[in-house]
Amino acid sequence: MTDTTTNQAPRNQWWDVWDQFKTHKGALLGAGFFVFMLLFVYLGPYVWGIDPGHIDPRVRNQGMSFAHPMGTDQLGRDMFARMMAGGQISIAVGLTAMLLSLVLGTFIGVLAGYFKRIDGLLMRFTDLFLALPLLPLLLVIVMLYRDPLRAAFGPETGIFILIVFVIGITSWMQTARIVRGDVLALKEREFVLAARSIGTPPHRMILRHLLPNVMSPIMVSATLGIANAIITESALSFLGLGFPSDFPTWGRLLFDGTDWLQRNPERVIWPGLAISLTVLSVNYIGDGLRDALDPRIRGR
Amino acid sequence: MKFRHILLGAAAAFALSPAAALAERGSDGQLNIIYWQAPSTLNPYLSGGTKEVEAASLVLESFARFDDTGEMVPFMAESIPTVENGGVSEDLTSITWTFREGLMWSDGSAVTAADAVFTWEYCTHPESGCAQTNYFTGVESVEAVDDRTVRINFSEPKPFPYTAFVGAESPILQAAQFADCLGAAAPECTDANFGPIGTGPFVVEEFRPNDVITFVANDNYRVADQPAFARVVFKGGGDAASAARSVLETGEFDYAWNLQIDPTLLAEMEETGIGTVVTAFGTSVERMMLNQFNPDPALGDDRSTEAAGPHPFLTHPAVGAAMSMAIDRALLVEIGYGAGGQPTCNVLPAPDAYASTANDDCLVQDIAGANALLDEAGIVDTDGDGVREHNGVPLRVLYQTSTNAVRQDTQALIKQWWSEVGIDAELRNIDASVFFGGDPSSPDTYQKFYADIEMYTNNFAGVDPEAYMANWRCSEIPSPASQWQGNNIQRSCDPAYDALVDAMAQTASLEERGRLAREMNDMLVQNYWMIPLVHRGGVSAHANTLGGVRMSDWDSELWNIAEWHRDDM
After folding, report:
1. How far apart are CA A161 and CA B209, in angstroms?
2. Which residues of B touch A263 (CB under 8 A)?
3. Tens of pLDDT along B11-49?
4. More confident residue, B282 or A241
5. Are A15 and A299 in contact (CB under 8 A)?
6. How far apart are CA B323 and CA B367, in angstroms?
7. Could you tell me if A141 and A159 are in contact, meaning their C-beta atoms sit under 8 angstroms apart?
8. What is the pLDDT of residues B464-486, one digit of tens each?
9. B106 CB contacts (<8 Å, ≥6 apart)?
10. What tens digit of pLDDT does each residue of A251-281 get?
11. Separation between Cα atoms, residue B67 and residue B553, nearest integer Å
12. What is the model's pTM?
């Protein structure tokens, strides 16, 4: 290990991560698809000029055609444009809610695992959240905060903040538990003992020694979290608690399409494909990242 | 004279119905019915829900029911009392009903006038929480003249006395069964509420709340060869689309109720050829309510109450007029309702004698006219954002309704049309069980109306609109003081309207009543307190092998289930 490094310039460790990531075919494909999806939903609308909300009763329930590559819905709205608009919201909700729950879960998990004194308290707190019935909680939160947020940020941003927050704070518990378990095990390892013996303060210990080693479970729960967030958002929309009905999201497009499954199957297939492929690609990215970030696997 | 005709007609229908003549009781096996909303009780006095009332109508009966044309058919009664036959007193203050001779409850005991008296006491008990008290409004007393004769006395002349004990919503209960269930104890009598003893063609065998009810034929039913079916399985739950599919495509069920799904889909399902879609038009109108009070969330608990003051722009008639003109009702019907709807400009579209023709201009969409009207009224877009302002308040409305694919399509269409006249709508949909739930602690109920505009369907049972039109008097405005009860959802108040309501309560002539009802309808519509959209019919489907279905929107859809039978294919 030392022979080769002597005659080279010092190399950023992220290059190692990238080298390892590159070797994972699935992760590369996944990343490619995810970037494609991002471009499709965020840049697509600039190329495809049809307004996703525009109703044209003359072209209702059309199949795929040159004018409407994904057909039209029961009001004659262009599905292609709606897929883009829906993707913007779904991906944004998925990513932000996942980040929120990840930060919260990791923070609580590490604290609980590392500091024995607050472990019991934090884990009971986690149990408390796990025991909360999700749907009634959501109903109450949405009912209480919808109007103030709507007044402060407008209907779209207000609901976005609310939904991201609601999904975030109701899905961090699994991450916290996994992280705590890993930290508990890592704490007893020799390198931690060594680090402690030279007087490393707790915050360094956590950031430098523990977090990089629990990165893989965090990555796995992060990828699952995105899928979970997209699905929860569509469930909320279904109950009338999510975005207003004229706001397409992938979940809502899928839900609206179920009635038309026999007549216009593409109405279900497109959003369904988009959700599953996006989730799958994120899972693969997570898989690749996990390998690439784990110093024990890297370079093998 | 008229009623005698009906009687003869009904008797003829009974006698001539081929199945009734040929089949014997219980010979046609099992009938499967699906209601995609599941009944939670079989006591219609404890639930105003259609599903409960209709499920109970298999068991519980009343003196008379309304058939598919809105005419009364005697059920428990021998005949329909009228002024001509002496059943209704000359001064219109009492009506006398006579039970059929030998009428028996399903447990074999005789039906007596005491049962009717008891039912009145049951529903009007101050602590009972009876859902159907409006059927007994104005009833001073119910007395048993003899074992078979019941006289209902009214506190003032009642021009249309056929309310108490008429129709599926005010059936007669067995006094013996419900004797201990008076007042506050009513909801606690689970056995009685889940398995009432009635005179109808079927008897409850098993009742699982919010799930399945099984009925078996009533051995003591008054017509010897009815019902043709030995058992009825009444399944609740699911959604409208799968209920339609189970009748029209897979044939698992024989009858499905309330199929408000996209007409394109329904028509395609019907093409399978094993079932038929039936519609019946009653008085249901899908309408928009325009909040006359200010619902601004900044007002906190005062919003949508009198304390909030009038609405900043919906009280201006030009705004309501423009909103109405911008709507293409024919297209709404085509997209959302198909055969189950007709465009309408009236809150009271039927019966014909009460239907106004003064507002029919609204049937044609006129976006240019709407724009011109707003320009003329000085409501123009001053800041160039595409939304007009009235006294500096932009015409932005929060437009709410219940969660339902057809309603969301309607919302989307209307939002687009309004954007063309410079009105911006924010859409909101609320789960139906919350929206119509009436929970005073929820901000999302239709009674609280914390929005500018809301859309839903309302109707009245029976054929007389007096009580229905009285819904919109000043005193009916929901407020915190009334626990948000009250039917004047749009919160309009005009003494002239109240005067018409009072006049109708004292008018007996049908012609004059029709004129008053039309005038009230025109006031509601021309002041733009409400914008009627679609005259909705009930849409149900039955298997082609099921005969005898005469769907009525004036009463329970299952009103004549005793006559239903299996046709050989």
Report:
1. 39
2. 264-265, 268
3. 444 444 444 445 578 888 899 999 888 888 888 888 767
4. B282
5. no
6. 9
7. no
8. 888 888 889 888 888 888 778 77
9. B59, B197, B198, B199, B200, B203, B218, B219, B220, B221
10. 888 888 887 888 888 888 888 888 888 888 8
11. 8
12. 0.76
DSSP 3-state of A120 = helix
B123: tokens are 């529903």
**Nearest alpha-carbon partner for B493 in B474, B469, B520, B472:** B474
Please tell me which of the candidates B261, B415, B426 has its beta carbon nearest to residue A259. B261
Rama region for B189: left / alpha / beta (φ>0; ψ in -120 to 50; rest): beta
Hey, are the CB atoms on B335 and A74 less than 8 Å from each other? yes
Residues in A closer than 8 angstroms to B426, CB to CB, are 155, 244
Quick check: B335 and A147 CB within 8 A? no
Q: How many Cβ atoms are within 10 Å of A165's Cβ, its own excluded?
A: 16
Question: How far is the C-alpha of B152 from the C-alpha of A30, rounded, in Å?
Answer: 77
Peptide linkage before A202 cis (omega within 30 of 0): no
- Whole-angstrom distance, CA of residue B86 vs CA of residue A76: 61
Pairs across A and B, CB distance < 8 A: 69
Residues of A in contact with B442 (CB under 8 A): 143
For the beta carbon of residue B101, count every other beta carbon within 10 angstroms: 8
Q: Which residues of B345-381 are buried (b: 16+ CB within 10 A; e: fewer)?
A: bbbbbbbeebbbeebeebeebbbebbbebbeebebee
B residues 289..328 contacting A (CB < 8 A): 297-298
Nearest by CB to residue A143, choosing from B298, B427, B443, is B443
Q: Is B73 helix (H, G, I), strand (E, B) or coil?
A: strand
User: What dihedral do alpha carbons A228, A229, A232, A237 form, nearest 10°?
Assistant: -150
Cβ B265–A246 below 8 Å, yes or no?
Answer: no
Measured distance CA(B210)–CA(B194) in Å, rounded = 11
**A277–chain B nearest CA distance, Å:** 27
Contacts within 8 Å (CB) and 24+ apart, B443-448 = B443/A143, B443/A147, B444/A143, B444/B400, B445/B484, B446/B489, B447/B478, B447/B484, B447/B485, B447/B486, B447/B489, B448/B304, B448/B478, B448/B484
Beta strand segments in B344-452, E: 389-390, 393-394, 396-402, 424-430
Contacts of A75 in chain B (CB under 8 A): 335, 409, 412-413
Are B80 and B72 a contacting pair, CB within 8 Å? Answer: yes
Q: Could you report the per-residue pLDDT of A131-185, keeping only the tens digit for each?
A: 887 777 877 887 788 778 877 887 778 888 888 888 888 888 988 999 999 999 9
Q: List the structure tokens of B558.
A: 């299952």
Q: Among candidates B547, B542, B544, which has minimal Cα distance to B563? A: B547
Interface of B with A in 418-447 (CB under 8 A): 426-431, 442-444
Tell me if A119 sits within 8 A of A113, measured CB to CB: yes
Cβ-based contacts of A57 with chain B (< 8 Å):
331, 334-335, 413
Question: Residue B291 is which amino acid?
Answer: N
Q: Are B327 and B425 in contact (CB under 8 A)?
A: no
**CB-CB under 8 Å, A155 with B416:** no
Interface of A with B (CB under 8 A): 53-55, 57, 60-61, 74-75, 77, 143, 147-148, 150-151, 155, 238-241, 244-246, 256, 259-260, 262-263
**Is B431's CB within 8 Å of A143's CB?**
no
Interface check B409 vs A, CB under 8 A: yes
Query: Contacts of residue A54 in chain B, CB cutoff 8 Å?
Result: 416
A256 neighbourhood in chain B, CB within 8 Å: 405
Q: Do A75 and A60 touch, CB atoms closer than 8 A?
A: yes
- Does the beta-carbon distance from B415 to A246 stay under 8 Å? yes
